[in-house]
């Protein structure tokens, strides 16, 4: 397996991935879009209605537009991971694994409120990532 290049500055490598489909929530969400900066470990998690490119791009551009400008200024190029090979996007996949466990702890019996808890669970994940970064 080829190791991804070491990151030395923010926004040098951003991981984007989708989890789902999950049980449809009362607000119509079925997917979780995860965006993480591999250097700073800044994490952003969004409930999403679908997994199409337009929807993902809309969330990414609307929520990360300032970061994209920074990327352009610093001439950062995008890398893509191969579908079906999650090891190429390891940090993002680890977040998904942790989030799945946390969602299972806080979901209701109908499994249709997972999106309500995402902001809180995202904060917990950020804390876990920060703690891990301080240990290394």
From TrEMBL:
Designated name of the protein: Integrase catalytic domain-containing protein
Gene3D superfamilies attached to this UniProt entry: Ribonuclease H-like superfamily/Ribonuclease H
SUPFAM superfamilies for the chain: Ribonuclease H-like
Listed transmembrane segments: none
Species whose genome carries this gene: Dryococelus australis
InterPro entries: Retrovirus_Pol_polyprotein, RNaseH-like_sf, RNaseH_sf
């Amino acid at each position: 397996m080829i190791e991804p290049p070491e990151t030395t500055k923010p926004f040098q490598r951003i991981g984007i991935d989708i989890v789902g489909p999950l049980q449809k929530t009362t607000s119509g969400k079925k997917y979780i879009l995860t965006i993480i900066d591999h250097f700073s470990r800044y994490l952003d998690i969004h409930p999403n209605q679908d997994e199409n490119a337009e929807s993902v791009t809309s969330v990414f551009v609307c929520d990360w537009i300032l970061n994209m400008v920074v990327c352009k200024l610093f001439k950062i190029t995008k890398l893509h991971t191969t579908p079906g090979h999650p090891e190429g996007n390891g940090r993002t996949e680890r977040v998904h694994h942790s989030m799945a466990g946390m969602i299972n702890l806080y979901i209701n019996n109908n499994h249709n409120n997972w999106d309500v808890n995402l902001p809180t669970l995202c904060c917990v994940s950020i804390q876990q990532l920060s703690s891990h970064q301080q240990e290394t």
